[in-house]
């Protein structure tokens, strides 16, 4: 029986090396999570190892939108728009708690990239290609209507706006819920487990040496097929395999800034032209507004991209250009985050904006299957393609037949809420359940949006662990989330909880400051950290708190 608890790490390691796996996935971001779920639901014995925490790389640092792919129309990638639009609807249906529709306004100005005519045609084409639902099809707004929706936008030369639907998500929660669903179906998943070497038999890949990053112990894990879903690290694994020929990755960095809502009272998500013509999003999220993203080539430490002063100033300039009444300064930045896009390098294209967001599968002579490129929205389809590749090989090599992908109509963990149509009713019921326990409506809605049909488990912990919470000096709701995160979401370090499981470091930095000491003390006790580990994990969180508001002067 597989579990997703940090208290069972040793057990999980034993399970993955007990017998030959069908599939070993290296990389626990959205791509690796998607592959694990697709593989295990087809009956493949599957494990996934992640050297950091799940979603710690790109999958927790995106613009947090499940794009319909409007920007790909600009690059005339019509097929991609159609596929991405259809996938977006599937992602929403399978987890409406974590992905929700968000109307987006695209203002246009005299002399801007978009005009009323091209925007109208572009959005009509987008509606058609992406199969947009009737109630979510684009509308065209007059300048007056645009200003009513968002009074903060620049008035000068405003000619109107396009109004269309994007879907906002919590990328890290989406990853965790997909991974949890894979584990619920029998996959093994473990974080802080790094593939440090490969094992071969007659030049054919048969396994990997996996090192527990907590204990330093190494494990030989054998598998018929190994998938490299390392995101920005894909080329590092190809290097170990000696197969980094031909195409390789071109990493670009994207930075987002977060502001308190009272300082940046945006009421409507906006997609706008920066002064240099790049497209930027400004999006309201709970009590914050966030803006991004930059897109610059990156050569630094893959595990630790940071905001530079130049990144910050570029976004501040873009904000002040589009929202001139705000006069934003660097002192207004509440938090920030930087992530890397693992794009596939293209000959003669150095400008990050020009490089395609397509995904590809590379298969090396030894049999290593590497997933390159791709994006959040397309994770399920990308996983299906990867597992199709595996089952085709297994059919040819061993005559074993596996079913087609079963994830199209499979709710992710937390997604069993009656689909998008049933979610509101589910929400009303849970708000009432929470009220019976004395939890206010705002907190209840926050929990339901985060945990979906797993909210019952949070409420149960709230009910039964009140005394323990008091002893630990932790707010009872936070305590319920913390226990759930450790026992059901493999949270091992403070950063896992405060960055990936709650998103608080980015979107509620005060929450982190208020709760970190008691949360760390409790985790240290339950997970039996050594003093040295406790100190190092505390410093890691403090460092991220510092970096959220202190840019570096330039790229290393």
What does this structure look like?
- This protein has helices at 9-18, 30-41, 70-74, 78-94, 116-129, 143-149, 171-184, 234-240, 309-322, 379-398, 419-436, 441-451, 455-464, 466-472, 476-488, 494-501, 504-507, 509-526, 531-549; strands spanning 21-26, 46-49, 65-66, 99-109, 139-141, 158-169, 188-190, 193-201, 204-212, 218-228, 249-260, 269-273, 279-285, 288-292, 296-297, 335-344, 359-363, 369-373.
- It starts with 8 loop residues before the first helix and ends in a 7-residue tail after the last helix.
- It has 556 residues and is an alpha+beta fold.
Any descriptors?
19 helices, alpha+beta, 41% helix, 556 residues, eight-stranded mixed sheet, 18 strands, ten-stranded mixed sheet
Short description:
Helices cover 41% and strands 22% of the residues.
């Amino acid at each position: 029986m597989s579990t997703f608890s940090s208290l069972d790490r040793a057990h999980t390691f034993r399970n993955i090396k007990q017998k030959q796996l069908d599939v070993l996935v290296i990389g626990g971001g959205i791509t690796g999570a998607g592959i694990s779920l697709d593989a295990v639901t087809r009956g493949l014995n599957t494990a996934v190892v992640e050297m950091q925490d799940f979603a710690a790389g790109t999958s927790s640092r995106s613009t947090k939108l499940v794009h319909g792919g409007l920007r790909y129309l600009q690059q005339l990638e019509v097929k991609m728009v159609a596929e991405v639009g259809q996938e977006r609807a599937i992602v929403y249906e399978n987890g409406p708690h974590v992905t929700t529709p968000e109307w987006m306004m695209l203002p246009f100005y005299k002399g801007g990239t978009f005009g009323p005519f091209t925007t109208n045609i572009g959005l009509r084409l987008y509606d058609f290609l992406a199969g947009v639902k009737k109630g979510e099809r684009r509308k065209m707004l007059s300048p007056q209507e645009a200003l009513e929706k968002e009074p903060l936008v620049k008035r000068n030369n405003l000619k109107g706006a396009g109004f269309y639907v994007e879907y906002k998500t919590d990328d890290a929660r989406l990853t965790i819920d997909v991974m949890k669903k894979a584990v619920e179906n029998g996959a093994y998943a473990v974080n802080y487990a790094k593939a440090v070497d490969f094992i071969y038999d007659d030049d054919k890949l048969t396994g990997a040496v996996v090192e527990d990053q907590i204990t330093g112990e190494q494990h030989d894990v054998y598998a018929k097929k190994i998938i490299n879903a390392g995101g920005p690290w894909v080329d590092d694994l190809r290097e170990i395999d000696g197969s980094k020929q031909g195409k390789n990755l071109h990493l670009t960095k994207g930075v987002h800034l977060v502001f308190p809502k009272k300082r940046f009272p945006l009421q409507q998500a906006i997609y706008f032209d920066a002064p240099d013509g790049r497209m930027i999003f400004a999006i309201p999220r709970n009590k914050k507004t966030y803006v991004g993203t930059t897109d610059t080539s990156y050569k630094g430490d893959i595990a630790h991209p940071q905001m530079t002063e130049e990144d910050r100033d570029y976004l501040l300039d873009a904000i002040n250009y589009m929202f001139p009444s705000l006069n934003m300064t660097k002192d207004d930045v509440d938090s920030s985050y930087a992530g890397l896009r693992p794009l596939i390098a293209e000959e003669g294209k150095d400008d990050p904006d020009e490089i395609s967001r397509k995904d590809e599968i590379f298969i090396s002579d030894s049999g290593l299957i590497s997933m390159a490129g791709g994006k959040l929205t397309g994770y399920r389809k990308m996983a299906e393609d990867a597992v199709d590749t595996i089952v085709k090989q297994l059919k040819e090599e061993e005559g074993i037949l596996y079913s087609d992908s079963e994830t199209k109509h499979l709710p992710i963990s937390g997604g069993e809420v009656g689909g998008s149509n049933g979610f509101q009713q589910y929400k009303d019921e849970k708000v009432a359940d929470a009220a019976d326990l004395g939890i206010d409506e705002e907190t209840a809605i926050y929990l339901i949006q985060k945990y979906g049909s797993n909210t019952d488990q949070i409420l149960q912990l709230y009910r039964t662990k009140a005394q323990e919470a008091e002893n630990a000096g932790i707010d009872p709701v936070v305590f319920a989330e913390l226990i759930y995160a450790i026992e059901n979401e493999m949270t091992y370090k403070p950063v896992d909880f405060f960055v990936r499981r709650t998103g608080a470091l980015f979107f509620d930095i005060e929450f982190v400051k208020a709760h970190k000491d008691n949360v760390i003390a409790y985790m240290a006790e339950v997970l039996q950290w050594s003093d040295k580990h406790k100190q190092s994990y505390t410093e890691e969180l403090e460092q991220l708190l510092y970096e959220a508001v202190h840019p570096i002067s330039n790229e290393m």
